[in-house]
Amino acid sequence: MKNEILRFENVTMIYHTPQGETAALKDLTFSVGQGEFIAVIGPSGCGKTTILSLAAGLIKPSAGRITVREGVTFGYMLQKDELFPWRTIEKNILLPLEIKKTNTPENRKKALDLAVKYGLGDFLSSYPDQLSGGMRQRAALIRTLASDPAMLLLDEPFSALDYQTRLNVCDDVYRIIRSENKTALLITHDISEAISVADRVLVLSRRPAHVLGEHELAFPREMKPLKRREEKTFSGWFERLWRQLNV
Description:
By secondary structure, the chain is α/β, with parallel strands linked by helices. The chain has helices at 48-55, 89-93, 95-99, 105-117, 133-145, 163-179, 191-197, 225-228, 233-245, and strands at 4-17, 20-33, 37-41, 63-68, 74-77, 151-155, 183-187, 200-204, 211-216. It has two domains: 1-73 and 151-163 and 178-247, 3-Layer(aba) Sandwich (Rossmann fold); 83-149, no CATH class.
C-alpha cells in the first residue's frame, strides 16, 4: 500500500493465564495508509481492542510482525473521556505535554488553539462535570491531539454516549480528524458507525480473529457521517457487512 504507516503481518496473539491459553488473534493481516480512516468491526470478544494495544506497542504479539513507519506516534482515545475531575478542561488538555515533558509555551499555545478552534475556548476554565458528555468527549479528543500524534487509535469512543449525542459527537470527531489530517484506526461494534466514518471497513471473524473481509467505501471524504447515513447506498453497505459479520 502506498504511504503505508502501519502493517500487521500474520499476527497471532495468545493470552496465557493460570487457567490456560486464550487465542485472541490468528494470522491477522492488514495495513493502514497515511491519512486513512479505518474502521474495524467484529463479534463481541473477538479481540478488537487487542489490535489497538498491539499497534500502540503496549503488548507484543505471540507471532507475526507489526511494522510502524519510523517516527510515527500514536494517540489513544478510550471509550470514556477519562478526564480528571479535579483539573480544569485546560489542564486536562495539557496533561500529555506534562507527561511527555514537552510543556513548552509553543506546544501549549498549539494545544489551546485547537481547543478554541473546535469550540472549547469558553470552557477552558470549567471542570469536566460542568460539561455535557459530548463536550467532554470533544475535550478528550483535543487532549489526545495535544501531543500531535500521527495516528489516532479510537477504542469505541462514542459507546458511553446516548444515541443522539453519539451521532453529533461522531460528526464532531470526524470533522476534527479530517481537518487535522490525521490517520485513524477505529474499533467499533456498531456497523452503522463504521460505515458513516470510514474509508475502509475491516470485518473480523470470531475469536481467534482474522480478517473475513475488507471493504472500501466510496463516500466522498468531505461528506459528514450524518450525511452518509442519508445516502441510498448506506443500507446496502449495512446489509452486506451485517451478513459477513454473521456468517
